[in-house]
Amino acid sequence: MLEINCVKKQINISQHLMPDIKQKVCLSVVMPVRDGERFIGDAIASVLAQTFADFEFLIIDDGSTDRTIEIIESFNDSRIKIIPNKGAPYVAGALTYGCCQAHGEFIARMDADDVCLPNRFMKQVEFLSQNPKVGVVGSDYLWIDDEGRGKSGKIWTPPTSHEAIRCLMYLRCPMCHPTVMMRRNVIAPLGWYESKTLQGRRYVSEDLELWCRAIEITKFANMSEVLLKYRVHDDNVSLAGKGRQEHLISVALTIQRHAKDILDLELSLDTCLLISGEKAGSMIDRQKAISFLAAIGARAQSSIKKVEEKSYTLDLVSKRIQEIIWDGGIRVFRSWFMLFRHQPRVGFVVGVALMRRLY
């Protein structure tokens, strides 16, 4: 059990005091960047404005050629350390190299285009200090646009309990990466973001791949309050960027690997794309797709009743079931997976009835 009293300790620390790296600092903030001049100023300012001050701020530069370094150096704060990436290229390599340089008991992830709310670090350090069995914690977040304006109604609320997160881990990523804070002594033995599956790929799902490994050894949680503003823009890979298709393939490769390693199922890439809720090609093995859901169901059986679900009215669920049955063919499976992702308990029930109807 970690013997730290981070929350009380921060009260006596100057807002601009750099922790002595020969001693343990409470928190390391790790932020990779490549050509991030558009938004990195806002990201850095939001980190330096935190009410919790006992941290080192490691910014891993992955070969920027724009004004990124100039902007970073304009901030006169001794907690900032610019580190050229000497590990593998791209975000997964930069993250692994940065985390290996960190000294903190806790590692906070941050992206160069997002904005932390002022109390994010305080809230998450306090949560981890009070919940020693939790190794990874995230939070809700607010979507913002290029100008930093909130998108109406766009607050993402991930599942909060470990049981719910574990149920959905292979169907969608239940953790928003830049909201995450994790224990170094729990995640470091896993090799951080190093992955043979995604090695050399630029547009990767490095977070999902790590969480699929970590969920087997530690507890996960999400705090049900907004602690980050997540920026959606043209270069955002996972949601809207030019590399989105490659990112989706990386997600499918991640599911494919862990289905084999943990569930002992050999799945085609098309089947894995379907599982992740995306359009797939023709090489889909329906029987193995069903086996995948059955395996996930077996893993979740003891805890499925604890899964938090949004309140769906009976009429809405009934309508969705009819849509699934009416679609037919491959869209049946895609619709079923989408329902399963968002309403796992309903998905189990519908799945049984649907399979009887189709076969």
List the keywords.
single chain; 359 residues; alpha/beta; nine-stranded mixed β-sheet; 9 strands; 41% helix; 16% strand; globular; disordered N terminus; disordered C terminus
Number of strands: 9
Helical element count?
Answer: 14
- Fraction of residues in β-strands: 15-25%
- pLDDT < 50 stretches: 1-5, 7-22, 306-329, 355-359
- Protein structure class: alpha/beta
Major sheet: 9 strands, mixed
SSE pattern, N- to C-terminal:
HEHEHEHEEHEEHEHHEHHHHHH
| Rg, Å, rounded | 21 Å
Which secondary structure elements does this structure contain, and how are they paired or packed?
Blueprint: H1 6-9, E1 27-33, H2 40-48, E2 55-61, H3 68-73, E3 80-84, H4 90-101, E4 106-109, E5 115-116, H5 120-130, E6 134-144, E7 150-156, H6 162-168, E8 181-183, H7 184-187, H8 206-214, E9 219-231, H9 244-263, H10 269-275, H11 286-300, H12 314-327, H13 329-342, H14 344-358
Helix pairs in contact: 8-9, 9-10, 12-13, 12-14, 13-14
